[in-house]
Amino acid sequence: MSETTSTNEEKKLPLNGRRAIPPNNSNDEENDVPEMEAFGLIPRGFNPRDYLRVEDIYMFKEPQEINKQEHHTDKYYNPKLIVRRGQPFQIQIYFNRPYKPETDRFWLEYLMGRYPQQNKGTYIPIPVGNVLKPGQWGAKIIHRENNSIRLSIMSSTTCIIGKFRLYVAVLTPFGILRTRRNSATDTYILFNPWCQLDAVYLDDEKEREEYVLNDVGVVFHGNVEDIKSRSWSYGQFEENILDACLFLMDKAELELSGRGNPIKICRVASAVINSRDDNGVIAGSWNNTYDYGVAPSAWTGSVDILLEYYSSKQPVRYGQCWVFAGVFNTFLRCLGIPARLITNYSSAHDNNANLRLDFFLDDEGKVDTRLTKDSVWNYHCWNEAWMTRPDLPVGFGGWQVVDGTPQETSDGMYRCGPASVQAIKHGHVCFQFDAPFVYAEVNGDIFYTKMEKNGTQVIESIDTTHIGQLIVTKEVGGDGMMDITEEYKFREGSDEERLALETAVMYGVKKQSIQDTTYQPQTDVEMDFQAQKAVLGNDFKVTITFRNKSRNSYTATTYLSGNIVFYTGVTKNEFKKHSFSAKLEPSSSSSFDIVIKSSEYMSDLLEQASFHFFVTARINETGKILALQKATILEIPTLRIKTKGELVAGKEMSVIVEFTNPLKQTLENVTLRLEGPGVLRTIKKQFGRIPMNSTLTWEVKCIPMRPGLRKLIASLNCDALRHVYGELNVQIQKP
């Protein structure tokens, strides 16, 4: 530590009359441990060399050795010993002479932080005994040979997660002799999903391989009608990532003694992943301008972001929901908490959490953007972390929602969770943390309300099925999609669903009843809207269909508004207005096509190529309004990736990325990124311009380090075109 910081701490001390020692919330700081701790005056003839002395400690810390193999930590690109709590590991101690159990006394000491204390779990003395008790700290000798002994050491299942310093202490008549500080014997202790007594225990081996050990995942985006997916490199085992993740807990000032608790770790991490109010990892930007930073769509994984933050200590620019969720997933898996990335399609961002999203219509039946404050995100990504919840009643453990995207404050900070998925499903939103907010994201109703001249509100239409239509995550052991909607909600319209809603309302989720407003919808006419699948840069058509189920003839004044939107459902501008009068014959269906030209939308297109259509129709004979909204996305071209040469660990190979520009314009200032955990570090390359219809080819040489199935992920980014991805699975052979 530098001089300035230590004097600051001395200055700070007297201000805090409540505690004798300063807060211990840095895993990086150390205290000085004396090599000779005398019991009193030392006699003149005392020579420490006459006593048992530690000459060397062998940690079995290589990836192929017993500790990392048995603790599933062999993938970490880190030279130090990494073990999981509640499971024995081995070390070998070499003394200056054979160990004599009758007369020699020694013990181990594990220390963390600057002010180690036994009652806080940051100073752990371990005597050597004859038996190891499950779930408790202990050590026993399993082998003796010449001057060395081999120990089996058990850590506690509630032990703090982080980096410990190891000392061996030997008792002499005049004092305690300790080994010198040696960073090579530092030991990282992580959560253990393989251990039944650990709070994060997961009983299925396939799920542990996916949710803890898989370093690549899939992000589902797009919208419900048109689901898109892309790969994301979590890279939790890459060099320095473990240290960067521990640094995040220091940054969040989480007291070391609280770091054995996954609930606390998730809660502080959900705040520190975003830069709002604590200068956390990622600065969000949703306005399509990304000066002095990287566009959210250009990132291919978490490693670059975490390493940049770890070295600069300043927020990395820029992220949107899947970037926050991707980095959060890396953090959780790296520490050993099982985690997965979730996508909720048609996610409600309900500003006053009343389970009701209000879209206000003006006289013509168009949506009034001035009055409408709520928005529906095409999709929103968050994370689930797996853990027991001893702070809640039985039955609410398992998957917990945590969300690092800054949307609303919780207890004064931008954070969200952990909230039990089970509690959300059953409407028990009284249980901490932030369950009402998540409940509203997946359960809101859309109200189309007309403001009359005299200020009264008339509800014209209610859509109860639009929000949270589909909730998905990557399947275990494959790249496909797994539908987990039923884990969050009962089937739409079922008795259980109503009951869960009543429970949520009872626990304080605000819901306005429809009874206190007049609402009689037009039931004998149905309206539907479909958009043709279209490729970016082409014309496409949309179709409005009416079904008149009555015996009356009606005319419907119909209004279509096409808007270019951010994926958060916020409108950038209206690019298409079209109104027409539709004749609806009795007991029949009629369809109307409208063509959308590329020239109408290309100049203002945002990066996710998202459109949002509002359709409102007034039945002239009854004055009733039908309303619909639908998001649609254009097909974005992809990158092609291929390899050249032998795919063998330790041998040079080539990766070739190709892209053909499909737009009717030249692309300027194009950035390509390529990464693949275990194959190559992220590489970036700038290209000045790509004329229309021309193809760009980029060849990268690399030497893959690890054998096995690996994934290459590439992205292309420029102002006119974003969200262009490509990926390739490669099987790297053993040499």
UniProtKB/TrEMBL annotation:
Enzyme class: transferase
GO biological process: blood coagulation, fibrin clot formation
Catalytic activity: L-glutaminyl-[protein] + L-lysyl-[protein] = [protein]-L-lysyl-N(6)-5-L-glutamyl-[protein] + NH4(+)
Pfam families: Transglut_C (PF00927), Transglut_core (PF01841), Transglut_N (PF00868)
Region described as Disordered: spans on this chain: 1-32
Keyword ATP-binding belongs to the record: no
Highest taxon of source: Eukaryota
UniProt EC number: 2.3.2.13
Cofactor(s), names only, from the UniProt record: Ca(2+)
Cited function: Factor XIII is activated by thrombin and calcium ion to a transglutaminase that catalyzes the formation of gamma-glutamyl-epsilon-lysine cross-links between fibrin chains, thus stabilizing the fibrin clot. Also cross-link alpha-2-plasmin inhibitor, or fibronectin, to the alpha chains of fibrin.
Family statement: Belongs to the transglutaminase superfamily. Transglutaminase family.
Name of the featured protein: Coagulation factor XIII A chain
Organism of this sequence: Machaerirhynchus nigripectus
Gene responsible for this protein: F13a1
